[in-house]
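A reminder from the course coordinator: this example appears on the midterm review sheet, so study it carefully.

Given structure:
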């Protein structure tokens, strides 16, 4: 029987030996440990890289009403028991063309057939009708209102307007709701011969005494 002897080439043996050495080296080398985990800073805990900062709580602010109440001085104890003196404003007057004098203690509306406007700030007014054969005067033509120590004339969107002549000034025509402050001695022409004159309380009192 013929025997065949196995032949190992030296080059192949060196290759196997090198592989064996590599395996042995791999077994002896320990893997590098993973990098440490950095825990992010949490509320209430301090960190070396990010120090904790205490933020002071905001101070309670007073509301405007509370602040006003705190700073306002207390009312006197006897305020409610002291009655207020009545107003002593003396009303102006207006003299009509026929000599009749009308007081401006209330708001006065003049016209051919005056009526109370739909929007009126006063509960009580005075309606003064004037004759107008040619109908140059509108139904509700002019408003005269005393405000404090001044008198305001307002055109009530009349057809022909109202011509006013303030002492020391040129005549001026009020049209389409215009207003003007008038002084004693002012002449107001509504048309159709209706010429009015504004009188001061002092002049009226002097004429009454005479």
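Designed residues:
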């Amino acid at each position: 029987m013929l025997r065949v002897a196995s032949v190992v080439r030296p080059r192949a043996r060196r290759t196997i030996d090198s592989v064996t050495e590599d395996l042995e080296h791999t077994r002896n080398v320990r893997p590098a440990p993973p990098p440490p985990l950095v825990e992010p800073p949490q509320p209430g805990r301090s960190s070396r890289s990010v120090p904790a900062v205490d933020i002071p709580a905001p101070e309670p602010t007073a509301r405007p009403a509370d602040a006003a109440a705190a700073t306002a001085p207390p009312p006197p104890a006897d305020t409610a028991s002291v009655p207020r003196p009545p107003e002593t404003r003396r009303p102006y007057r207006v003299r009509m063309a026929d000599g009749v004098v009308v007081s401006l203690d209330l708001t006065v509306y003049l016209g051919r057939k005056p009526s109370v406007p739909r929007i009126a700030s006063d509960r009580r007014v005075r309606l003064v009708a004037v004759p107008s054969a040619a109908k140059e005067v509108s139904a509700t033509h002019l408003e005269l209102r005393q405000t404090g120590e001044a008198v305001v004339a307002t055109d009530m969107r009349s057809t022909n307007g109202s011509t006013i002549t303030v002492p020391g000034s040129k005549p001026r025509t009020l049209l389409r709701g215009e207003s003007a402050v008038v002084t004693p001695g002012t002449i107001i022409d509504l048309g159709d011969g209706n010429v009015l004159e504004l009188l001061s309380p002092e002049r009226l009192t002097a004429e009454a005494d005479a």
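Residues 44-55 have pLDDT under 50 and may be disordered. The radius of gyration is 52 Å.
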